């Protein structure tokens, strides 16, 4: 009996140690990013490295703005990510609704066809998309960044999985109450799907907010740059503006952090619906 | 409100490959203001029939008329019917008030004030006024049930459809709601079609009962009719609890014999004419233990219900059930003999299973003798 | 007054109600006009499929097509023209191409040693990173799922933080942290008496750096998914196992693992697809170096396509990559999916 209690205590202790080590390893780089963002670049290469935050944050921020017009990049990123998220939510929820709650010809093959495209890496599409956008004359336009992944396979998949959980009787009841088919979608299905929509919104926003390669190819004018592009621009061939990158990152992290933290529960739920039953 | 005429209704499911016939040639009239209960085992087509009336399923063949107007091709929202679902189907994102008002909002031009006045009125009728600002998930099963009813009655539909509305409630609440539903229906006198798999519920609630099996309408009638004069063996077996005892017997002149020691001599031999075999049916409540009966059997189990005992016995290979007085409590494994009256006997054709003879016992016992004047 | 109170006050005002009623009547009139549309589901799915067709399906097919050609430049002529009276239809040529047959594939598969190098690097990262992350993510999730752990929310949030950092940002952080001479990691190693590791200047260690970076970023994300999966395991199963006298390991082996199977499969498949698409990390942290020791397939494709404009050749490389990833994913689903 005593052996058992001691074992248990040891197990608990070990678990905590493990958790603390993992947490420390994960948080150190972020903490260090904060440190770097608050010291002047001249102290960057000091030896030993700085480990305590300084007071140089706003100076670094001013330098960043002067160098890259970072505020503009934030604006660009917001416009792109928000309009992309809304458009994609609309497309995916509408199509997902049809796949979940209606019968039509070729329904199954169409759906599995979309699912199969989940495997396609984004990079595969970049070359033809680039050529297509050149053809449309859309290079250097936000539209060219927003449209391509708005018809998001993962999005339609999650929406369909979640919307299948809406009881048929709920829709039938609304039909009897006098709702048109379109009202079923926006008055019944959408409001009951708010948690799943939130989960999908996080995924879509995160994807677009952090998109790098495709915007890099499409948006070539500095005033069109999104945050990742502006950051990449700071990693120059001659000089790397580490301090500014860190400041910029500390800013770029905030929206994601806020969105993610507030909607974390929905996120888990939405993702799970996608993974549990294929 | 409306008389519903269903003519040759047929509904098939499935793709081009296999067809499943859910409803097969159903002909039925539901009278204005009537409470008609569809009952049958699961998969018998009762819910499909209800959904066809509501316009939730496309009809394969046949017509549905409301007061002589053909509504077969009308959409659900054009039919002015209301439905209460088994799971209540309350809109989870709306408050009780908005749930109840939703039909008026969608299908009438009443102003918001009129709607909210009407919602309050309905809520008062159902006693759910204090709940108006709550969301469905905060309510108990019985309260959700009432909200669903409120949403159904608010726009004075011509027809109520109810799909097992009580089956999600616990037994006690179920019997309360049963009475409440009946009273409400009588008060509003709306034509109502009600689906249940529970024959007791069907008997208790329906003005008439429609018994379905394999998509086919077996019989429509009052509780007494389907109990006393079932048209066939299926109805006889489905209605009544515990179920009727059924077995096959050989006909020898005016005597029924076998299996396993069963003999019974009939006075009226008309139903036996020209047959060498019949299916015999005797209800458990008509069996009485007698010293010289026609059914010798061995007792297997006695269930004591308090007011009566259910006795399970074997006559050879045939399982029998009898409802007997609670004072009679035979030990298990003893032999006992049952008898019954000829007027309580059912006989069915072994091939077609249609009824040859049903109960003929007297029903209308004069109750005038018990009436006390000046009481009502 | 809170915002909610203001809104509800507006909503209860008389004029608001009248306006919203008017709007409702208008909508009802429109709804009555609309006939029953037999093709309604198609109406719902068509916006999705139009965009899907133009921006996903067409590019996929076009990549396949492009892989058999040599790209000569952006075109200005028409691929297809038809003129019928006043109607004129012309499909513009997207690119100026020269048919190359299978030569792109032949060169990639048989002769291009840099492509082989990038394949090897990517496979190396995949084989080390995915198992490492799945095991670590599972272990962390299991510990966090234990009843006795306090402040679960805090730990979960801290571990998930890296997901919020952008690709470039976190790559830069790692570039600095793992700098051979001035990086914090080597400083810490040296201060505890260990020798510094050539994180970025040695081929093997540079790949390990990428593995660490990717694991750091995605550990929390995958841990959250596994954690959510753990919470769906019915408690009775553990109780039943406890009564049967199962040890801690046996409970994990015979209850947790089988129940977690679909969630783990999801994590493995998405991680596989992710590692094969790895681009920004080598692009920023190692630049593909030292001496091409960390160049990945997608990085190679990017360089071929957008620095050297060998679009046909890069397309062929993409097709090879996709084929590999598809086969791998299908194998994983087939052998990891169990009965369903």
Would you give an account of this structure?
- The complex is a heterotrimer of chains A (278), B (376) and C (340).
- Chain A is mainly alpha-helical.
- In chain A, helix 3 crosses helix 10 and helix 8 packs across helix 9.
- Chain A is globular.
- By secondary structure, chain B is α+β, with helices and mostly antiparallel strands.
- Chain B has two domains: 230 residues, Rossmann fold (3-Layer(aba) Sandwich); 115 residues, Beta Barrel (OB fold (Dihydrolipoamide Acetyltransferase, E2P)), CATH 2.40.50.
- In chain B, strands 6-7-8-3-9-10 form a six-stranded mixed beta sheet, sandwiched between helices.
- In chain B, helix 2 packs across helix 3, helix 2 packs parallel to helix 4 and helix 3 packs across helix 4.
- The longest helix of chain B is centred in the middle third of the chain and has 18 residues.
- With 340 residues, chain C is mostly helical.
- Chain C has two domains: 65 residues, no CATH class; 230 residues, MetI-like (MetI-like fold, Orthogonal Bundle).
- Helix content of chain C is 70%, strand content 7%.
- The mean pLDDT of chain C is 83.
- Chains in contact: A-B, A-C, B-C.
- At the A-C interface, helix 1, helix 3, helix 4, helix 5 and helix 9 of A face helix 3, helix 5, helix 6, helix 7 and helix 8 of C.
